[in-house]
Design brief:
7 helices, 3-stranded parallel sheet
């Protein structure tokens, strides 16, 4: 999910999806690349839902590449005439799930991988759809829509360029880069997990 999420943009539906995923032990995790713009809701570690926080518009594409989502979900409950974050979502080539209301209908009419649902689709029905899509080949293949993603090595090279006060950063080995990055993030209360070369960073 992208951007600042409000009740009208599906905040409570998203929470309900995460609650249902936990209750049914579904292999789903909901990540908002953005923030809550409304009442607080339950989130991790209680349920599989997290928020990365506010970001600069120019960094959104980079944030999507870091998170490497399987698909992008728009849980909106109210029609909009235009969606700024939808433009970013369409640029990724990733599968998109959205309600059949407002700008989503028109702008996604020729998008190659889209699932449009009624605006009042239940959290359980959305989760059933997500689980069914997990078995599709396009979520596993290294197709054109994934070419914009960063490998762990490429990610470190780019991310280290953004980090301040790291001397001789170009000379780091991969293991040295991980150590330096982990040290800096820990000092700033960020977290880096390196597990089988997969990188998760919560900012």
């Amino acid at each position: 999910v992208l951007g600042g999420i409000t009740p009208a943009k599906g905040l409570h539906l998203l929470e309900a999806c995460a609650i249902d995923a936990k209750q049914r032990n579904l292999p789903l995790f909901f990540k908002v690349i953005g923030y809550i713009n409304g009442p607080l809701v339950r989130h991790e570690p209680e349920i599989p839902l997290s928020f990365s926080g506010r970001y600069e518009d120019t960094d959104l594409s980079f944030q999507i590449k870091i998170e490497r989502p399987d698909l992008i979900f728009f849980p909106a409950q109210w029609p909009v005439t235009f969606s700024y974050t939808l433009s970013f979502a369409m640029q990724t080539g990733l599968p998109i799930v959205a309600p059949r209301i407002g700008a989503f209908c028109e702008r996604l009419s020729h998008y190659p991988m889209v699932w449009l649902s009624d605006w009042n689709t239940s959290a359980q029905s959305y989760n059933d759809l997500f689980v069914s899509l997990l078995g599709e080949d396009f979520l596993e293949q290294d197709g054109d829509q994934y070419k914009s993603y960063l490998s762990p090595d490429d990610f470190l090279k780019i991310y280290l360029e953004k980090l301040p006060n790291i001397e001789l950063k170009r000379s780091y080995s991969l293991s040295g880069a991980f150590a330096a990055l982990e040290n800096l993030l820990t000092k700033n209360n960020y977290y880096l997990i390196n597990e089988e070369r997969n990188i998760d960073i919560d900012l």
